[in-house]
Amino acid sequence: MPTGGKAGSARRLQSLDEYAGSRVLVTGGLGFIGSHLAAALVELGAEVTIVDALVPGLGANPYNLRDIEDSVAVVRADLRDPAGVDELVSGRDHVFNLAGQGDHLASMRDPENDLALNCRAQLNLLEACRRSAPETRLVFAASRQQYGRPRTLPVHEDHPLDPVDVNGINLCSAEAYHLLYHRVYGLRSSSLRLTNTYGPHMRLEEGGHGFISHFIGLALHGETIDVYGDGSQVRDFLYVSDAVDAFLAVGITEATAGQAINVGGCGRTSVREFAELCQSAAGRSGRVVAVPWPEDRAAIDVGSVYLDHSRLEAATGWRPQVGIADGIRQTLDFYRSHAHAYRS
Amino acid sequence: MPTGGKAGSARRLQSLDEYAGSRVLVTGGLGFIGSHLAAALVELGAEVTIVDALVPGLGANPYNLRDIEDSVAVVRADLRDPAGVDELVSGRDHVFNLAGQGDHLASMRDPENDLALNCRAQLNLLEACRRSAPETRLVFAASRQQYGRPRTLPVHEDHPLDPVDVNGINLCSAEAYHLLYHRVYGLRSSSLRLTNTYGPHMRLEEGGHGFISHFIGLALHGETIDVYGDGSQVRDFLYVSDAVDAFLAVGITEATAGQAINVGGCGRTSVREFAELCQSAAGRSGRVVAVPWPEDRAAIDVGSVYLDHSRLEAATGWRPQVGIADGIRQTLDFYRSHAHAYRS
């Protein structure tokens, strides 16, 4: 990995030899997680092609490839358009499918756009794989957001899917398509339901990228972080190198084909505690203040949520490696020298 | 109702006075169930507007309105295009939303088209209602197909949704949008998960319209009916007047807003028994023969399925009225004089 998040690399390199020389496509590979995954695959000796539409607001950033730009092929293409998708997937041993929108509020403002980005594009990719890459190993980036407000904690994969926004509904469909194409066509696809993921390469603007990057941006500048309510909502924050390890592990574990699999984080931390760790790591004496819930946020809030990741652990041996304090420190270390590239 | 299915009408007319003078939009109103619903609403004194895109293959048939064409307004418009949808919903007391595709095999052949018909169109309608008819009462036609292969019988609304084809996935999304718009925006929408519905106004071609209309078409001509496997799969067949009664009852029952509700049929009947009843009612000595499952059908078959409709009964007093033998007889009576209009 180019910067930050070395934890877990040693383990990865020991067991992931089969990626060496393999032909891999990473969709959304200019984005936050996709760019780290591409870098890890390069490090493992894979022949990596990135496809990204560079849709504004979705996190694609050419700067994310600064350390690997000579080692990967980059194709600018929009999966919403079926033209050319067959050529992109043809001959790939692996497709890591991280394209899409994860912006809750944007999905409520423009539900049709969310549908096109998260459902139409995914159907195009799956149809292309069915036709032109039926043997490929496909791993889709889904979200714990699909569960909605948890009825039981920790959230197991069998928990009902009851998303609270259009984005969550469309992600459920996108995941269901992936699993259906396994069931009906034998396509070797898995879906990873990622919990809140953080680390280098996140955009730092407030808005659709979630509270994590917003908090980090504020902490960097010593500004006050507002937490909604009392900030007691619990999350299991996932450092990006652990997310990458999960994709890599699932991609070579045949038994996970056809499955939806939780990727939970390291421990359980309240939103307020996360904010305080950000301020502490930044060392600039910014404060954390509780404020009332804004109406649009409250309508789609899910309360505390953390995942049971025993299915992934049993199938692959994966466990999250990077604790919250280490992860936040590495993240802030990164942005101290690179923040200019993550603000518009 | 114009033809057939008089059972239940008396009860309906007693309790449904509030539709008199109300302004009602029926989407997909040229189709099988939509046209019966429109006729019932006319009979109840409602001011009915039908919108239909007349998409080939979806069952729209101007002949379905032959008895009410002077009593309803018909707008040819495609909900996939957002232009004009606000004007259509504005001022309506009720919107019965029966537009969409229910064709399992077509959804696998052309998943993007199914997505546009069942998700994009529904988002357009919901956005228009949110903006221009926030007080309307909206009832959506969903399907028991969303459950997939039942894990428990009869299938209750809490049964996991695990559809076996793209159409089922997209219907789940369409329903979820309707319930989300209730939760987030207070839109008074309900979703009816209809079991296998039959009766006058079905298309009679083989193909995407399910086995029921195909069987009836064969029986009319005294031809052999092939049932897949041994034909022992059980269904709870729903006569169309009972489906109409369910829409009407839910449309005036405020407590059902925000809910998904099963609409089950009258009793439980095997597919083979249904075929034999068709042959018997036709009186033309056609036979019923068991044949092996075709591969494309077997891949998306769900086995036996019948619904628990106690939620609907508790909320509205609705119960199915038309038994299977009566329903099949009325259906065949209808097609003896009208079949010419239901074949292409």
Number of strands of chain A: 13
Helical residues, percent of chain A:
25-40%
The profile of the biggest β sheet of chain A is: 7 strands, parallel
Strand order across the largest sheet of chain A: 3-2-1-4-5-6-11
Poorly predicted regions of chain A are 1-14
Beta-strand content estimate of chain A:
15-25%
Mean pLDDT of chain A: 92
The total of helices of chain A stands at 12
Taken in chain order, the helices and strands of chain A follow as HEHEEHEHHEHEEHEEEHEEHEHHH
Task: Give the N-to-C terminal Cα separation of chain A.
Answer: 24 Å
Radius of gyration of CA atoms of chain A, rounded to a whole number: 19 Å
Quaternary class: homodimer
Look at the helices and sheets of chain A and give the structural class: alpha/beta
Please tell me what the overall shape of chain A is. globular
